[in-house]
Amino acid sequence: MIHNISAMSNATTSDDTHAQEIAATTPAQKRALSYSSTIATLFNQVMSTSMPADRIIGQYFREHKKHGSKDRRVIRESLFGLFRWWGWLNQLESSKQHTTWFQQLSTCAMLEQHEWNDITQAWNDFADWPQARADKTLLENDASLEAKLAGFITLSGIETSQISQLLPQWFWQYCPIDTTEQYALVNAMSTRPPIWARVQTLSTAKVIESLNQAGVEAKASAYFTDAISLGHKSINLNEITAYKLGHIEIQDLASQVIGQICQPKNHEQWWDACSGAGGKTLQLYSLMSQQNSTFTGSITASDIRHKPLEELRKRAKRAGFDNINVAPWKGEILPVNVKAFDGVLVDAPCSCTGTWRRNPDMRWLDDASAITDKPILQLAILRRSAAAVKSGGKLVYATCSLSPSENEQIVKDFLSETSEFELEPVTHPFTGQQCDTLTIWPQQADSDGMFVAKMRRK
């Protein structure tokens, strides 16, 4: 099923419609009605503007300080839950538009297993379900994806519903995966994203101890010595001392794979050609500074946007990282010297399909053009950036896409037009398998999706 924005927007109702059509008699029903109106407004705003949901909801909370922590949690988790399950929820239909909306809210609460029972019960009452279905909505102790599909079919009566519908149809065309892994991928994409952090400037043990004392459940990763898991619950980083002092940076585990593949040495000169706000720049610096011998290398970060580079400067200052230079891109002219670097990292702009778990709204806002529009630009950036690699130096190409047309094909096209570079095999950090290029899938280690390839100038 191919979904479109107009169809999704029409599924929700306005505040006026809620007020006219629904009679809220209890305090819980009144709160539920207020929440539903706010969520509908935010949902429609995301769909009509195609702006990221986290940006829209962040702006909303900044403008509406009245909401307490519970209010914010109900609104935020319900909104993102709707996007997570929209492949099923948008199939619900009722003779009344507002009834469809409450059916979607009620079903989302069931699938997400939300804890605010008084609110979800009110939504269920407003949904006007046939009684025979409403009595069978509980998932009991089974929260598996199969059980959720069965619960949705029982509640909705839509027996054609399938697990694959939780991702848009075009995704399966452009991001093929073995059918034996399809369920695991959708299951990962349908769960709340993990929070991963990377330790810098202190030992992992000390940082974990500090975080645990602050009430944060931090655990060491089994894969990288400087990676730690912070669970799946929201954290106010501004209240965490380790973060404020630059001892940790939030960085997904799949993203951390890229720096590990780069293997920078502390005497090398590295260029992060598409640095953004500098997460991987800081990782490269941290990996270099952890080595025992004297740090004599440096890192240069470039981006076409100035605001992310300013954010990088702030993050580097917070961590006390000095040997980081900034060289903004100005058009197509190389912002650094030719053949001047031991290593060049090209984390290219992409469709970001690997981050859909973290940004579930994007799977319904984007279409196939999010993938098909990128390869020309990606190859051009890789081609230009490669000129900065010195003889014997490393060239690392990465994206947070799961599409071969943005990944393996770009590397193949690049190597077909030059004889100066060759592919270096890499080891999959989560499976130990040797491979020419590496795709990290979200289900493999509870992370985002990521692609990386390592080349060397002959």
UniProtKB/TrEMBL annotation:
Ranges where the SAM-dependent MTase RsmB/NOP-type domain occurs: 183-458
Active-site annotation: C400
Gene3D superfamilies to which the protein is assigned, alphabetical: Vaccinia Virus protein VP39 (3.40.50.150)
Protein keywords: Methyltransferase, RNA-binding, S-adenosyl-L-methionine, Transferase
Cellular component aspect of the GO annotation: cytosol
Alphabetical GO biological process terms: rRNA base methylation
Domain of life: Bacteria
Keyword S-adenosyl-L-methionine belongs to the record: yes
Gene Ontology molecular function: RNA binding; rRNA (cytosine-C5-)-methyltransferase activity
Residues reported in the UniProt entry to bind S-adenosyl-L-methionine: D303, D347
Protein's UniProt keywords contain S-adenosyl-L-methionine: yes
PROSITE patterns reported for this sequence: SAM_MT_RSMB_NOP
Family recorded in the similarity comment: Belongs to the class I-like SAM-binding methyltransferase superfamily. RsmB/NOP family.
Name of the protein described by the UniProt record: RsmB/NOP family class I SAM-dependent RNA methyltransferase
The species this protein was found in: Shewanella livingstonensis
Native organism taxonomy: Bacteria, Pseudomonadati, Pseudomonadota, Gammaproteobacteria, Alteromonadales
